[in-house]
């Protein structure tokens, strides 16, 4: 059976991920994402009403025109998890393919919200919910099967899809870290990865998340960030002024920890901001392991009213969890820092960033400005209470050891970002150009 891999997006950047695997006549697409930084750099852009070709020209969504060089039919579009760099282009490109979206339930909910907001294109592809551990037959040959293996990441219900073919398995490894004590959900299923590495024809190809491939050591568990957060908030138990926290709105486990520790120190947590309400609201509605009795406010006018109430009732009784961890100019924390909201920061008030700055010049500049403005109001800033959602080098070593793939394709980075992974794999006996395929966007790699 012919096996080809089209590396469509996310091979020159972190963002707009998209990869297609052809097995005989059947094609499965993994991820269809957005490169948010290409959108945010333009002021006031509303992608909902934009045409896909304009977004392709901006570098915001994958250039999927290479798909016409693959001879076969797309049978499924499989987003691995709900981050926008993996699902954000489905509303723009998905309708071009006569295929269902297959994903875990939480990811499906987020995809549905994305396509509901879309104004330019009609999207009526079927959306199929499939849990980690389940499989689905692909095409009519009876020889190709899709499996979801449970992984751990900075959003709940992440999976690594595996396409089983007669030539061996193709394992799509974006995005994950190895968490054996996650705060929500099951640990990463390393047992299943080791089995896949040893059953049948083994692993033909492994496509790896190289976000942190240049970082040594091992990425800690979400529990480490949770304990760091607990320690930080407990240290503020006797403080009788304002405490404000910010984190990734999609990081449901982290938001859960913030809510729990706010209550432990006698404060009422309130989630504020449109994306806070979106992700946490979805988690709450779906009945995942998340506090169901927390207030969420999404619209600006209601947010300002809530902040007024907080000031009237005494800000020492509350812990607002807000948007703006990257210093985004229009996010709530940045508005607070500029003194544009009813919430007054006083000397000694605490601001907790449970997030790391995404290493990208726009974010770094905006976050610097936000912290400076907060400091000018007298706030004390606690940054980097966070662990990454991506594997570092020892995790990459463990994955190679578990899967023992014949071919590897580094992804989710640019060329310099791949270098650490190429070094590591070379030390494990792989050779660049023979079985390590460093590639760019828009290429097709023929494996069989
Ligand atoms: Zn991700």
SSE topology sketch:
Elements: E1 3-9, E2 18-23, E3 26-30, H1 36-40, H2 52-57, E4 73-78, H3 84-87, H4 90-93, E5 101-103, H5 105-117, E6 127-129, E7 135-138, E8 144-150, E9 159-165, E10 168-173, H6 190-198, E11 203-209, H7 222-234, E12 243-247, H8 252-264, E13 268-272, H9 274-285, E14 295-297, H10 300-313, E15 318-322, H11 332-337, E16 350-354, H12 361-376, E17 380-382, H13 393-403, E18 407-411, H14 415-427, E19 443-446
Question: Can you characterise this structure?
Answer:
By secondary structure, the protein is of the alpha/beta class. Helices cover 31% and strands 21% of the residues. The strands form four sheets. A six-stranded mixed sheet has the order 7-8-9-10-11-18, covered by helices on one side. A six-stranded parallel sheet has the order 14-13-15-12-16-17, sandwiched between helices. A hairpin with a 2-residue loop joins strand 2 and strand 3. The chain is globular. It starts with a strand and ends with a strand. The mean pLDDT is 96. The structure holds zinc ion. The site of zinc ion has 4 residues, from loops. Zinc ion binds next to loops.
């Amino acid at each position: 059976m012919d096996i080809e891999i089209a590396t469509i997006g996310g091979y020159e950047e972190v963002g707009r991920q998209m990869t297609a695997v052809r097995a005989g006549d059947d094609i499965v697409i993994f991820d269809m994402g957005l490169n948010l930084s290409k959108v945010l750099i333009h002021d006031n852009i509303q992608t909902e009403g934009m045409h896909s070709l304009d977004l392709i020209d901006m570098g915001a969504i994958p250039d999927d025109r290479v798909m016409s060089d693959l001879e076969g039919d797309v049978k499924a579009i499989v987003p691995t998890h709900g981050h926008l760099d993996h699902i954000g282009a489905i509303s723009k490109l998905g309708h071009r393919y006569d295929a269902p979206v297959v994903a875990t339930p939480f990811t499906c909910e987020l995809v549905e919200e994305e396509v509901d907001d879309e104004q330019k294109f009609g999207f009526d592809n079927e959306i199929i919910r499939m849990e980690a551990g389940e499989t689905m037959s692909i095409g009519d040959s009876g020889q190709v099967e899709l499996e979801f293996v449970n992984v751990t990441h900075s959003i709940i219900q992440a999976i690594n899809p595996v396409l089983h073919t007669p030539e061996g398995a193709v394992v799509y490894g974006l995005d994950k870290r190895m968490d054996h004590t996650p705060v929500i959900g099951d640990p990463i299923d390393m047992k299943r990865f080791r089995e896949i590495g040893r059953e049948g024809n083994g692993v033909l190809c492994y496509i790896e998340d190289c976000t942190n491939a240049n970082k040594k050591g091992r990425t800690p568990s979400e529990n480490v960030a949770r304990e760091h957060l607990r320690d930080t908030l407990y240290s503020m138990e006797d403080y009788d002024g304002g405490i404000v926290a910010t984190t990734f709105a999609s990081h449901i486990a982290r938001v859960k920890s913030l809510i729990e520790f706010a209550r432990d120190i006698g404060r009422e947590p309130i989630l504020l901001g449109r994306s806070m309400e979106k992700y946490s609201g979805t988690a709450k509605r779906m009945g995942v392991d998340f506090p169901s009795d927390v207030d969420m406010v999404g619209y600006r006018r209601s947010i300002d009213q809530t902040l007024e109430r907080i000031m009237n009732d005494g800000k020492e009784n509350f812990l607002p969890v807000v948007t703006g961890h990257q210093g985004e100019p229009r996010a709530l924390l940045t508005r607070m820092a500029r003194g544009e909201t009813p919430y007054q920061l006083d000397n000694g008030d605490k601001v907790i960033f449970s997030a790391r700055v995404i290493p990208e010049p726009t974010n770094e500049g905006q976050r610097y400005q936000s912290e400076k403005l907060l400091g000018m109001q007298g706030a004390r800033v606690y940054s980097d209470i966070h662990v990454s959602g991506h594997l570092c080098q020892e995790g990459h070593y463990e994955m190679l050891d578990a899967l023992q793939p014949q071919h590897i394709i580094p992804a989710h980075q640019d060329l310099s970002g791949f270098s650490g992974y190429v070094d590591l794999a070379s030390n494990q006996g792989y050779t660049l150009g023979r079985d390590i395929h460093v590639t760019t966007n828009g290429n097709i790699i023929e494996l069989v």
